[in-house]
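Apologies for my clumsy wording, but can you show me some protein sequence, whichever is easiest, together with the matching structure tokens, please?
=====
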Amino acid sequence: MTLSKTERLDLVAWSYTITGFLFRSRISLAILAAFCIVLSIGSTPPTRETILVAVLGILSLITVIILWSDWRYKVYVLASLWLLFAVGDMLSHDHPNSHTLLEWVFAHTLVLVFALYGWGVWRRAGPYALANSDGFREERDQVEKWRKLLDAQNEPEVAEFTTGDFVTGYWTYRILNAGTYWVVAQFKRGTKRLESCHVYDLSSVTFSRMVSGKWLVNISSGSRTKSFAEIEIPLSFPLSGPMS
């Protein structure tokens, strides 16, 4: 499917959110690999269980090494590992005997968890590989410049506001006026953890003055619209048009 310029930039911006996910995956898998290898060395269960634990530990270690590389298909490796964990749990004999379908489901809960998680990671792998291909080099260079502006302090082209609650979580949003685009980044409040980053056409982000003097910010993506009320926008922030 042919992507528009905005969609190409948005895909690359989204791929930045995978960076933090991969970092956390490297740490957790390194710990898991060490645990599995140590457990297999001093294991007393049947040989089959010991071999399964050892194999999964070694595969986890190999995956950690691959995740440190710049290979654009590495997310597929991560997804495959979690799917292999599901297979390993299926092959394990360390399950209570099941006499009904419900008992089998409860006994194999981890299989379902690993399979669903692996499938979720697999769905991210394709877009990540595409965004990091040679054909998207220009978009990556552009988004990298925007990311530096979003990370900088006191940039006149960037508006920042916080929102959220206990249920939805507390977030910090930064909106960059990038001339012919809006770039919207969402961070976990009080941290630099990037939750999402998207590129929109100028018409997709609107600012409306409220009676209170503050602003209503609407961000539209397809048929969905996110609205943020009572937002303070700096006077220096350009609400429309190209940056001067």
Q: What stands out?
A: The first strand starts at residue 158 and ends at 165. The longest helix spans residues 5-41. The chain has six helices and seven strands.
